[in-house]
Amino acid sequence: MGTRIRRTLAGAGVTAAALTAGVLVSAGGGSTGPAPVAVVAPPPTPSPVASTSEVPYPDLSSVADGVAAAVTAASPRTSVGFVLYDREAGKELATLGADEPYYTASVVKLLIAIDEVRDDTTGAWALPDADAVEDLTDMLEGSNDAIASAFWERNGGNAIVTRTAALLGLAHTTPPADPTQWGMAKTSAGDVLAIYQYLEDTMPDEIAQPILTALGNARNPADDGWDQYFGIPDGLSGMSWQVKQGWMILRSALVLNTTGVVGGRYVVVLLTRQPPISSAKGRAAVTAGIKTLAPLLTRLNAT
Question: Where does the UniProt annotation place the signal sequence (predicted)?
């Protein structure tokens, strides 16, 4: 926690290009001042919003396969990790490869943000000063890599992933092998679901709200010029969302992730590792997969 990071970046030369060491070709979205006043929360006791018996579900057996089929039709040989969860019913509706680790790309910024607002020594929750809150906002809304890198370096790098995964009970989330490449941390669709559940249901509201508001205001293009409205924003147009997208171009693969809460009710997580195709085709493939969910979510919202 602490002072505004953007002030410390001038002349530092922190750019997305600095994240291209090793196997990373390009990454975007993915790849001490006064002490704040602490807000101490009681031990969290998350609970589902409603009973699963209150929602009449259609046949859901083909939902995950339909998502994967749409993705791979547009981008053959793509690996898919997927989860669809109904918060209102406390029920997982569809899943595919939910425990399989994928590169986070910029989805790791959710962990960076959570770590920034918690004192790992005392366990107290506290928003940093107004300038640092603005940095968190920019990091999430614009998927700003330079700000993420500054938080990463200031707060311990790989330790951010290790301690936040332990806090949230994430079973398949690990720090990157190269501690300078935060976008190459790994996570699973099931773990990303747990991150959103923690933000929505466990963190103190006054701490989580600035993060969730920023996710609901994700701007397009992102700060690196990337079109980040693939997947959820374009595939579920007309529905409200809070999203964290991720993208990363490797020499051997294109990593594209779309994750978020849709309509305040559904957590949607689609992680992909695609062959080295064009980014436009990759984004279209992810959007095609998410579009298959629109009729289901529209039907459920009508119940």
Answer: 1-27
| Predicted confidence (pLDDT) at residue 21 exceeds the cutoff of 60 | no
Q: CB 85: neighbour CB atoms within 10 A? A: 23
Query: In Å, how far from its chain's centre is CA 15?
Result: 21
- Which CATH superfamily does the domain covering 21-31+54-301 fall into? DD-peptidase/beta-lactamase superfamily (3.40.710.10)
CA distance 163 to 115: 8
Is the bond into 176 cis (omega within 30 degrees of 0)?
A: no
Q: What's the rounded Cα separation, in Å, for the pair 149 and 112? A: 10
Question: pLDDT tens digit string along 253-285?
Answer: 999 999 999 999 999 999 999 999 999 999 999
Alpha carbon distance, N-terminus to C-terminus of the chain: 43
Sequence-separated (6 or more) residues with CB below 8 Å from residue 252: 23, 276
Give the three-class secondary structure for 263: coil
User: Average pLDDT in the 191-211 region?
Assistant: 97
Tokens of 146: 């330079």
Give domain limits for the chain.
21-31+54-301
Each residue of 153-188: pLDDT tens digit? 999 999 999 999 999 999 999 999 999 999 999 999
Q: Report the distance separating Cα 145 and Cα 245, nearest Å.
A: 13
Q: What is the pTM of this model?
A: 0.85
